[in-house]
């Protein structure tokens, strides 16, 4: 048994740490001097490797000479993974494999322990393992992460023969005789990693290394190249004709760009940092002195450049995998037997479409033939052969921009499809064919909107919207029925392609998009009515969402104006589908059941008007039916309309509520509210809380008499804010007589699952105390010290805005507050409204991703609509000032009551 070697001296550790810092400083100097990412990563890796070799040698020198010889003849140290590639970011892990023969297990174990401790003490983070050849091969066959790291294995110390023996054994037993298995293991492991990091190339806070299109995709291409052809070298794959020179050039440029970004992130964080957050994006745009344009901020231009690289990496990697994936022998035989020709040119294999070799050049040099290829692939629901797509991509750069009638007809045939349209258009976009048809699509390529509301770039959002609309085909709802009954699906899908094309120009994107739509319609030779329809859809693509989520759609005037603007059932159906697809494509989970119901309600009400029913008549009929149902719940006798009833109290209470409340609430809920208000003492407040398992929210229903109506709303909000609750939605109603009926759906962040009854009872009491004035906001905040301010937003984000609408409602002034969702925002805004002497008679509170759109229907001190322009301007300025101060001071402002 060997004796433990004496520990390294403090002086040695200081030397080691100094060398680590020098390696990082060297990299930072290269970064400042404008060196490439590859140069910096190589320089850091070389310096760190030299230090590791010094640590190894220092530890070895402390051992007896015989033991030194024994170790050097029976063990080796290999750099694997990123270290094996010779590329390191400043704070990357060092990947090492300590390899040994079994006869020196004790001596080697002690030696490795000393080396590892010294590395850690030097400030290096090791990713290491200690194995024999047998162990290494066995591990590589079952663990894809280790297997792929071994592709980069490179001996840096010890017995060269032992290292070579391992590399040969690894290649023979892990790769050579199981190429297809190894290929699939590499791909599957990477696809799983992609899913864990967002699953989409165009997500707006990517992981430089692991997100789709990141450095790991370049690694994957090299790994599957090694699995298939025995080399991971891009230039060797190019020389063997496995990948084009253009793709290799693109990959190398992207690798250099991504490496440099990653290196900058490490230096900025002072640690390993691969997540490209919005804050670091802003910092990097400033560091790189990116100059903005009229339509795009510096950070948007920076990220557009980033996504151009990452998207290219993802596309090339996916194409390479499809083109070179090994097929089982039986599968190849089956494909051969099942292959047939649809004519003398096209060849249909079970899972893809190809062109007979002698006609390939002819097809790829003609836009009509290319579109016929895409049309056929879409019709059969199959993909196009990867190498054929490569040829189309190359030729698309040289094709003329003029469109023939046949080209237009083929494109419209593709757009009219209800299945596989999304994937087809994506491939047309990736190959450059879609840019020929619609030149403005080039502008949308990797176009970023730097805000808190979108999850994807404009082009990714657009294709997701197309794919979302296709899912409506089988939807058993008004939305599905609308989609199925649309006659001109080509115009619908063209409008989805163009709905956000106006972004990035510095003006209202709907108006710019409408102008682009008009130009596109002329380019495609659309008839005048088709052109007008396309322009309308693009121009008005936000209108339905605006009305459904931010306005009282029970108001006949709002409905009538909207129906007049739409004009026909077909236009309404198309606008409805476009709106739903647009919202769905914003991000996962955005198109909630609640939003779906609101949108469907607006659609159905408007469709009735377009069918000839007058809005006011329709509303009166619905109110009459609601009234009869409410009477039934209260066991009151039914009386014919327009006849007096003995129970005038009921009629007075019912008529005192707004049509919005009566039409959106269930008749059972209205009956319960009326019964409570009828018997409610002047000084009593009723609060009913109920947990709703399907949404994991608590609904707090509050009923208060007229004496508490002033400031009631913001006092209730103060309770939820102080208790760290997230208000998902709220419906605020004040009757003509001053009675208050408010409902809040909240997420209680103190509980992961069901909220206990004891908690709900406590909150009910807190609300009663707040509304009655027994407690105030300051006291509640001080009693809840666990309250924490949410992270501040960067100054690059808008601090919020206020819009005042004095046209939509005859009775009220409407205030729209659009801001970033931060804890306490609603309380601050509602308090400011109260302090200006305004009464909230109805409110629509909702959160859209990180964006809040709070809508308040307000009256002045005399219960009248605000007509004075100076007063309106004052309200707007005070609320915007409140938003600005809140962003600067946050939680401190809660204390000022």
UniProtKB/TrEMBL annotation:
Its activity is regulated as follows: Uridylyltransferase (UTase) activity is inhibited by glutamine, while glutamine activates uridylyl-removing (UR) activity.
UniProt cross-references to InterPro entries, sorted A to Z: ACT-like_dom_sf, ACT_dom, HD/PDEase_dom, HD_domain, NT_sf, PII_UdlTrfase/GS_AdlTrfase, UTase/UR
- Name the UniProt key words of this record, in alphabetical order: Hydrolase, Magnesium, Multifunctional enzyme, Nucleotidyltransferase, Repeat, Transferase
GO function term, MF aspect, one: [protein-PII] uridylyltransferase activity
Instruction: List required co-factors.
Output: Mg(2+)
Q: Where's the HD domain?
A: 458-575
Q: Which residues form the ACT domain?
A: 814-893
Question: Which residues does the annotated region (Uridylyltransferase) include?
Answer: 1-340
What Pfam families has UniProt attached to this entry?
ACT_ACR9_3rd, GlnD_UR_UTase, HD
Catalytic activity, as annotated: [protein-PII]-uridylyl-L-tyrosine + H2O = [protein-PII]-L-tyrosine + UMP + H(+); [protein-PII]-L-tyrosine + UTP = [protein-PII]-uridylyl-L-tyrosine + diphosphate
Q: What is its EC number?
A: 2.7.7.59, 3.1.4.-
Q: Name one GO biological process term.
A: regulation of nitrogen utilization
Domain comment quoted from the record: Has four distinct domains: an N-terminal nucleotidyltransferase (NT) domain responsible for UTase activity, a central HD domain that encodes UR activity, and two C-terminal ACT domains that seem to have a role in glutamine sensing.
Q: What is the similarity comment for this entry?
A: Belongs to the GlnD family.
Alphabetized NCBIfam families for the sequence? UTase_glnD
Q: What does this protein do?
A: Modifies, by uridylylation and deuridylylation, the PII regulatory proteins (GlnB and homologs), in response to the nitrogen status of the cell that GlnD senses through the glutamine level. Under low glutamine levels, catalyzes the conversion of the PII proteins and UTP to PII-UMP and PPi, while under higher glutamine levels, GlnD hydrolyzes PII-UMP to PII and UMP (deuridylylation). Thus, controls uridylylation state and activity of the PII proteins, and plays an important role in the regulation of nitrogen metabolism.
- PANTHER family, alphabetically? BIFUNCTIONAL URIDYLYLTRANSFERASE/URIDYLYL-REMOVING ENZYME (PTHR47320), BIFUNCTIONAL URIDYLYLTRANSFERASE_URIDYLYL-REMOVING ENZYME (PTHR47320:SF1)
* Protein name per the record: Bifunctional uridylyltransferase/uridylyl-removing enzyme
Q: Which organism is it from?
A: Gimesia fumaroli
């Amino acid at each position: 048994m060997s004796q433990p070697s004496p520990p390294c001296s403090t002086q040695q550790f200081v030397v080691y740490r100094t060398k680590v810092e020098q390696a990082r400083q060297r990299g930072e100097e290269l970064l400042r001097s404008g060196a490439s990412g590859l140069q910096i990563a190589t320089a850091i890796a070389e310096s760190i490797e030299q230090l590791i070799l010094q640590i190894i040698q220092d530890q070895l020198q402390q051992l007896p000479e015989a033991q030194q010889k024994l170790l050097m003849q029976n063990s080796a140290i290999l750099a694997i993974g990123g270290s094996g590639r010779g590329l390191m970011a400043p704070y990357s892990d060092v990947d090492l494999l300590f390899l040994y023969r079994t006869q020196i297990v004790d001596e080697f174990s002690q030696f490795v322990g000393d080396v590892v401790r010294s590395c850690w003490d030097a400030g290096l983070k090791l990713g290491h393992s200690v194995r024999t050849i047998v162990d290494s091969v066995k591990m590589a066959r079952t663990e894809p992460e280790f297997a792929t790291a071994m592709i980069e294995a490179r001996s840096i110390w010890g017995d060269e023969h032992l290292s070579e023996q391992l590399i040969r054994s690894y290649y023979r037993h892990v790769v050579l005789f199981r190429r297809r298995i190894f290929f699939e293991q590499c791909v599957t492991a990477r696809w799983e990693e992609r899913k864990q990091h967002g699953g989409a190339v165009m997500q707006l806070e990517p992981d430089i290394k692991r997100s789709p299109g990141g450095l790991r995709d370049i690694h994957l291409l090299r790994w599957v190249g090694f699995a298939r052809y025995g080399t991971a070298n891009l230039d060797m794959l190019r020389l063997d004709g496995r990948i084009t020179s253009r793709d290799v050039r693109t990959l190398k440029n992207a690798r250099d760009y991504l490496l440099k970004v990653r290196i900058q992130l490490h230096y900025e964080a002072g640690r390993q940092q691969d997540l490209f957050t919005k804050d670091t994006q802003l910092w990097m745009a400033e560091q790189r002195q990116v100059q903005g344009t009229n339509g795009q901020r510096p950070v948007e231009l920076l990220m557009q450049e980033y996504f151009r690289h990452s998207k290219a990496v993802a596309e090339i990697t996916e194409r390479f995998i499809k083109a070179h994936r090994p097929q089982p022998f039986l599968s190849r035989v089956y494909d051969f037997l099942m292959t047939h020709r649809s004519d003398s040119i096209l060849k249909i294999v079970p899972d893809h479409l190809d062109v007979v070799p002698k006609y390939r050049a002819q097809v790829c040099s003609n836009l009509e033939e290319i579109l016929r290829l895409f049309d056929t692939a879409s019709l059969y629901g199959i993909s196009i052969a990867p190498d054929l797509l490569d040829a189309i991509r190359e030729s698309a750069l040289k094709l003329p921009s003029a469109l023939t009638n046949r080209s237009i007809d083929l494109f419209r045939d593709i757009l009219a499809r209800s299945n596989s349209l999304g994937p087809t258009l994506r491939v047309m976009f990736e190959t450059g064919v879609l840019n020929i048809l619609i030149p403005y699509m080039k502008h949308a390529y990797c176009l970023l909107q730097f805000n808190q509301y979108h999850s994807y770039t404009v082009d990714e959002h657009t294709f997701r919207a197309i794919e979302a609309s296709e899912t409506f085909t089988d939807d058993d709802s008004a939305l599905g029925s609308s989609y199925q009954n649309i006659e001109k699906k080509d115009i619908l899908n063209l409008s989805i392609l163009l709905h956000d094309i106006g972004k990035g120009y510095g003006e209202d994107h709907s108006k710019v998009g409408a102008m682009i739509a008009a130009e596109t319609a002329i380019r495609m030779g659309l008839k005048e009515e088709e052109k007008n329809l396309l322009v309308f859809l693009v121009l008005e693509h936000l209108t339905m969402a605006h009305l459904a989520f931010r306005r009282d759609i029970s108001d006949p005037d709002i409905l009538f104006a909207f129906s007049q603007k739409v004009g026909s059932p077909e236009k309404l159906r198309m606008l409805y589908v476009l709106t739903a697809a647009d919202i769905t494509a914003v991000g996962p989970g955005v198109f909630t059941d609640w939003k779906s119901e609101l949108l469907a309600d607006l659609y159905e009400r408007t469709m009735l008007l377009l069918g000839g029913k007058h809005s006011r008549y329709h509303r009166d009929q619905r109110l009459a039916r609601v009234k009869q149902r409410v009477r039934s719940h209260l066991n009151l006798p039914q009386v014919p309309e327009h006849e007096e009833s003995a129970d005038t109290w009921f009629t007075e209470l019912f008529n005192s509520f707004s049509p919005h409340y009566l039409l959106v609430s269930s008749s059972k809920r209205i009956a319960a509210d009326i019964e409570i208000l009828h018997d409610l003492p002047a000084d009593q407040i009723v609060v009913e809380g109920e947990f709703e398992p399907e949404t994991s929210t608590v609904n707090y229903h509050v009923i208060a008499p007229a004496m508490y109506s002033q400031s009631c709303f913001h006092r209730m909000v103060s309770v939820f804010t102080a208790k760290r609750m997230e208000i998902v939605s709220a419906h605020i109603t004040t009757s003509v007589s001053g009675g208050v009926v408010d409902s809040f759906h909240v997420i209680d962040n103190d509980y992961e699952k069901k909220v206990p009854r004891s908690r709900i009872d406590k909150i009910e009491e807190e609300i009663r105390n707040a509304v009655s004035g027994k407690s105030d906001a300051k006291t509640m905040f001080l009693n809840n010290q666990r309250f924490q301010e949410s992270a501040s937003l960067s100054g690059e984000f808008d601090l919020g805005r206020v819009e005042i609408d004095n046209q939509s409602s005859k009775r009220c002034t409407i205030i729209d507050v659009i801001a970033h969702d931060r804890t306490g925002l609603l309380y601050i805004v509602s308090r400011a409204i109260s302090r200006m002497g305004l009464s909230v008679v109805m409110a629509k509170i909702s959160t859209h991703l990180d964006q809040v759109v709070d809508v308040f229907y307000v009256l002045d001190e005399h219960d009248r609509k605000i007509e004075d322009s100076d007063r309106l301007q004052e309200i707007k300025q005070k609320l915007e000032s409140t938003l600005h101060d809140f962003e600067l001071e946050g939680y401190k402002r809660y204390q000022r009551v």
